[in-house]
């Protein structure tokens, strides 16, 4: 008998003797007898038993009832009456009336349901949920409304605070180790709350699988170490997050991994690198940080795949709403979920989305290194994603309108924003993005001191790192990210003393406009 403290979505194969598998999709053709729940489906002769210990263990997530019963070989469509134990349990599930253990034949153990928990009719497959036609609706309901692995009638997803998951007896542990049963086993390997986040992001990205981690840098570094072999070669771009560059330039070489760095638009340089090296991976941001350069994801993917190289796009600045990197041909997409996905400047997280094969390969290393996301942080991301589409719409609109105003202002020397015709990849951005993001970088017509005066004159935004939250944030990259370098070394990366990166929050546009214009008037 398989025992699991958290009931994962276990779906049965119609093949005799097949092992149960975890899945985020409902298989309507599977020949099974099941509870009237989207959570539990088992094959004939597969016995599921959750004890009163399991009930106590799950009490902190609002699980008021846990049912154990055995299923006979008879399925509902076989014309043979269902087993008494299954009948009794279904009756309890549909009526929400406590069941006397004596009603269950065969001596199966039952933990009686308390008030408030119901097992409703099986919910539809996500792909069949035509009533969710927009990313906004998916961000709100994916992983929850369409069925989740936590049995509760609470609207919000409970936080499962546990470091480990127990087995009722050694035989159950052996079943798990030999892959006849499922369990997270240990908190570093998974958590019901974090699974909801992963399913939401997978739904938005159109990915088979998503893995959530403790930070965006954790996601990038684990991905690179898992997919690039010792002595391998990668291609990346000149403009990128500085910590990513440091990892590529100083840590990967210790593993014999080398890199070719190209301009984001230089496809000729990419083709040369692919010819001269056995490239394992192309990895960059699109848009990039801080100049918001855009990479032709479709073309890059075609070129790399011809040579057997993988493509991973960091879509943090774009968000899953403005850009679908996987649909454009990328193999993987990573995000710093700290930014737009969380959206409230109150949580650190990162995620990797792609095929089940690639994400599973990365997950193996992740389980070794750690970097697991705390379930309380996962809940904050779930909460934040409910308003993702509303926030991004507002930030897209504000940033584009302000970029146009800044570009026309006499005290602004240059504006970097893919939504402007002056941007070098504007036409590309129009093809592969539906919105241009909430960050605008621009150069003040002046030196370091004059730029500091402008930043200090602003009243709404916080001077801080990060971006993508509800609150507007401003910084001078020369000071915030590159102050340890000399001015001449900063220039090598294109970072001038007068560069400003402005992340627009969800404040009223007119308030932000007035604040920026008054700050410009002070210099």
Q: Can you put this structure into words, describing what you see?
A:
- The chain has 523 residues and is an alpha/beta fold.
- The protein folds into 2 domains: 135-386, Type I PLP-dependent aspartate aminotransferase-like (Major domain) (Aspartate Aminotransferase, domain 2); 388-522, Aspartate Aminotransferase, domain 1 (Alpha-Beta Complex).
- The protein is 34% helix and 13% strand.
- It has 18 helices and 16 strands.
- The strands form 4 sheets. The protein has a 7-stranded mixed sheet with strand order 5-11-10-9-8-6-7, sandwiched between helices.
- Helix 7 links the parallel strand 6 and strand 7.
- The longest helix is centred in the last third of the chain and has 20 residues, at 388-407.
- It starts with 9 loop residues before the first strand and ends with a helix.
- The model is unreliable at 1-128 (pLDDT under 50).
Total helical elements: 18
Rg is 26 Å
- What is the CATH first-level class name of the largest domain? Alpha Beta
Overall number of strands: 16
Report the CATH architecture of the largest domain: 3-Layer(aba) Sandwich
Q: What separation lies between the terminal Cα atoms?
A: 74 Å
Strand content: 5-15%
Fold-level CATH name of the largest domain: Aspartate Aminotransferase, domain 2
CATH superfamily (homologous) name of the largest domain: Type I PLP-dependent aspartate aminotransferase-like (Major domain)
The amount of helix comes to 25-40%
Overall tally of structural domains: 2
Q: Please outline the major beta sheet.
A: 7 strands, mixed
Mean pLDDT: 81
Assign an overall shape: globular
The structural class is alpha/beta
Low-confidence stretches: 1-128
Main sheet: strand order: 5-11-10-9-8-6-7
